[in-house]
Amino acid sequence: ACQSCQATRPDPPVANPGRWEDTRSPWSRVHIDLAGPFHGKTFLVIVDSYSKWVELALMPTTTTERVVITLKRIFAMHGLPDTIVSNNGPQFTSGEFEVFLANLGIRHILTAPLHPASNGLT
């Protein structure tokens, strides 16, 4: 956005990120988001809430289909999480994504829009 737009646009909504409940085992709750582009590359970031282990996956596209393919590969290595936390990005709110999670029995928690800190870990 141009400088005058940046100076006059409203602040994003205020949301209290709160504190996530502690998890008792690895991979029980993972937080996911897309990061980038960095030098033209976008990554899927997956963080295990228990160990804080980070998985990064280079994403050729950011479609729901590509996110699902990538998560299947990562789940094959680490197992299925009980819960996934994501923002309201279209990849994570599509019917295809919800069906994918439901078929695997994974609970999906959506965080506040335009408030990345609410998907963060302490």
TrEMBL record:
The protein, known as: Integrase catalytic domain-containing protein
Pfam families noted in UniProt: rve
Organism: Micrurus spixii
Record-annotated Integrase catalytic domain positions: 22-122
PROSITE patterns in the cross-refs: INTEGRASE
Region entry Disordered, spans: 1-21
GO biological process: DNA integration
A GO term, aspect molecular function: nucleic acid binding
